[in-house]
Specification:
Distance between the termini: 41 Å
Number of strands: 18
Strand order of the largest sheet: 8-7-6-9-12-17-18
CATH architecture of the largest domain: 3-Layer(aba) Sandwich
Helix content: 40-55%
Shape: globular
Length: about 375
């Protein structure tokens, strides 16, 4: 995607061929800053501190974190240490575990002398694959949007509602939930996006609005609690979100507040779509409510907010009374019954085990045995 006319991915190999460059998402939307990650420890901190975030990008960053570890020390001990350290950074997003399992499985079979080159090559492949997957998700979602557009008889734009950030900043490029919106806009379909602010970290206001604005997609930022009202008033044609982990039965774990949007959409007959790449599917889990770990983050994300002052300085301020505790649950689980359909790189399917297996038949138990 483009920033001021220059194409960027969210993660890439630095000019020295060893370090990794990323966009520091904690500095957006006020400052566009490139961070250089030169060690596995720095990669782990970038994931933990949400310098990079979004399930697919976390997976890519984890892969490069393993490569950085192999550049430091390609021993078995470092391989195990890097796997454990990186896996503990973000427990909910399954893409991270998928990428780390992939790298560890490949590198374990190699002598230490061959691990560095193999790790960097595989990390680059994972990034390229993510771009292709997200582009395909965009194409498959575009087909759904075209159908919705045919129902508009007054020439008014289609109104989409999204929660959190599932755009190119959450992936290596294109995004998951936003990819169909970009494809629709680029195809000349009149589309407007309601952007949930997404408290407490405001990824919608800070990141989704930043992306859409730079790409020229009409959008409006709203407080998180406005979505239900808009749906009641017929001002939302469909909802589309991403996911950090989806069970084999179609339960969807995503940023906190997604479940409430799904409930409102269900009550008002608004389609609720979830866009996801195959590494986000956790085939080992059937019951998302019981089995998916829900990350609890620092209460400071709730008790403080960061913004730009009238003088131009970026400052963080407290918004709670002194002594008031805060709880920060980062994700919730939307049951499959509330999801209209899943949009993947292979096509669109019902949010069910049968639906997912229709697109991924290789995951049938008899084939995996």
């Amino acid at each position: 995607m483009n920033i001021d006319g220059k194409p960027y991915r969210t993660i890439w190999l630095d000019d020295d061929g060893r370090a990794v460059a990323v966009i520091d998402q904690t500095r957006l939307p006020h400052d566009f800053v490139i961070r250089r990650l030169a060690s596995m420890a720095e990669a782990a901190e970038a994931i933990r501190g949400m310098i990079v975030r979004g399930a697919p990008l976390i997976g890519a960053a984890g892969a490069y974190g393993m490569a950085l570890a192999m550049a430091e020390d390609p021993s078995d001990a470092m391989l195990g240490q890097a796997y454990t350290t990186l896996l503990e950074t973000r427990p909910t997003a399954v893409n991270l575990r998928w990428a780390l399992d992939d790298l560890r499985g490949r590198l374990t079979k190699l002598p230490p002398s061959g691990r560095r080159a193999a790790a960097y090559a595989r990390a680059a492949e994972i990034c390229d694959e993510d771009v292709a997957i997200c582009r395909a998700i965009g194409d498959n979602g575009l087909a759904l949007i075209r159908k919705i557009a045919t129902r508009k008889t007054d020439g008014a734009p289609i109104n989409a509602l999204t929660h959190c950030n599932a755009g190119w900043l959450a992936t290596v490029d294109w995004g998951t939930a936003l990819a169909p919106l970009y494809r629709a806009h680029d195809a000349g379909i009149a589309i407007h996006v309601w952007v949930d602010e997404t408290r407490p970290r405001n990824q919608g206001a800070s990141l989704t609005a930043f992306e859409l604005g730079r790409h020229g997609v009409p959008h409006t930022v709203i407080a998180d609690n406005v979505g239900g009202h808009l749906m009641q008033q017929g001002m939302v044609d469909f909802c589309i979100v991403g996911t950090d982990r989806t069970t084999r039965t179609g339960d969807v774990c995503n940023k906190i507040g997604t479940y409430l949007k799904a409930l409102a959409a269900h009550d008002n007959g608004v389609p609720f779509y979830v866009a996801l790449p195959y590494p986000t599917i956790d085939w080992t889990i059937g019951d998302g409510l019981r089995a998916i770990p829900i990350e609890r983050r620092d209460a400071r994300e709730v008790s403080h907010m960061t913004g730009r002052t009238a003088a131009g300085a970026v400052e963080t301020v407290a918004i709670l009374p002194d002594g008031s505790p805060a709880a920060n649950y980062a994700f919730d689980v939307t049951p499959a019954r509330l999801v209209t359909a899943l949009i993947t790189e292979r096509g669109v399917c019902p949010a069910s085990e049968a639906g997912l297996l229709s697109l991924y038949p290789e995951q049938r138990p008899e084939r995996r045995a």
